[in-house]
Specification:
The protein is 38% helix and 20% strand. By secondary structure, the protein is α/β, with parallel strands linked by helices.
């Protein structure tokens, strides 16, 4: 037959309509996957990332249809490369590393600019420690001249930071007896008297420094003064910081500086999605979960979300922060 009966045509139309409606519902409920690159499972990034992924996921009352997961990684540089390459929607990074990536400087010298890199939120500070032997008579950064100092291993963000700090006081690696050790071996050499001081970047208190302070005694060298004020004006990813008294045994309150742990994404991520993610991150339920879940979770606050940015905010995040009055 060339033509369907009226009954068959109506039936066909009904089925087609049902299929179309079903397809619309399916599209509306299609989950959006949002990976968060973190760090090693033994570090701070991974558990904090897990908490954030949990609170923003739709299944837990977060952003509808969003499935967020924390992914273990090699840290800041790896996360930025994953965002750049499209293998991750977001990731954590030190603010200094984010700045170098965005500007094609520092660790990213000669590798090109990651111009689409954007900040979702500043999460918490990562303090620059300058740890010295108690008997090394190092009272300021300037006193490092001629001393045996570990600047951290090649390729690390700490190495670049330590060079900047030395430079603020008119020093270079040639003015110290530089070594390039990870914090663990550097601490061992300090304990053995084979090293005078070393740089470390991380949240306080850190276990290795606490153990060293208890077993051998240490001093924390202040990173402060007009030299540092000038440096802060030049490098906006740094901020003033203070290690409270007795954070480490017998160590008084010490002024220093910090970089920030930041949550980054690509400018290509939809504005509405990032807006809703940030809105969910700072609601009352999420705040309670973050505070209960990890010591650093208590520091993830709306009031500090735009501190020490260094690179542009994602437009979706920027819209939310302006609505909340934390950004002009």
């Amino acid at each position: 037959m060339k033509f369907m009966s009226k009954t068959r045509r109506l039936a066909f139309a009904a089925v087609a309509g049902a299929v179309a409606i079903g397809a619309t519902v399916a599209v509306a409920q299609t989950p959006a996957f949002f990976r968060i690159g973190t760090g090693g499972t033994a570090g701070t990034y991974y558990p904090v990332g897990g908490l954030i992924a949990n609170v923003i996921s739709g299944a837990n009352g977060g952003v509808p249809a969003l499935v967020a997961t924390a992914v273990a990684s090699n840290g800041s540089v790896a996360n930025i490369n994953a965002i750049k390459g499209g293998s991750s929607e977001s990731g954590f990074s030190q603010s200094d590393v984010a700045y170098w990536a965005h500007t094609g400087t520092g660790l990213f010298e000669g590798k090109g600019k990651v111009e689409d890199l954007r900040v979702i939120a500043t999460l918490y500070p990562e303090t620059i420690h300058l740890v010295a032997r108690k008997d090394a008579n190092i009272k300021s950064v300037a006193d490092l001249k001629g001393k045996r100092v570990s600047l951290d291993e090649p390729g690390s963000g700490t190495l670049v930071d330590s060079r900047i700090v030395l430079g603020a006081f008119g020093l270079t690696e040639k003015d110290v007896k530089a070594e390039y050790l990870k914090p663990g071996p550097a601490g061992d050499r300090l304990r053995d008297g084979a090293l005078d001081a070393y740089f470390f970047v991380g949240g306080y208190p850190t276990g290795a420094i606490s153990e060293l302070a208890t077993s051998s005694g240490i001093s924390l060298v202040p990173i402060t003064g007009p030299e540092i004020d000038k440096m802060l004006a030049q490098y906006q990813f740094f901020a003033k910081d203070t290690v409270p008294a007795n954070t480490y045994k017998d160590v008084p309150e010490t002024p220093t500086i910090s970089v920030n742990a930041q949550w980054l994404t690509s400018a290509k991520q939809p504005d509405d999605l990032v807006y809703n993610i940030v809105k969910t991150l700072y609601n009352e339920k999420s705040r309670a979960a973050l505070e209960a879940g990890h010591a650093k979770g208590k520091l993830v606050t709306l009031q500090t979300a735009t501190n020490g940015l260094g690179i542009p905010l994602h437009p979706g995040a920027e819209k939310f922060y302006k609505e909340q009055g934390v950004l002009k």
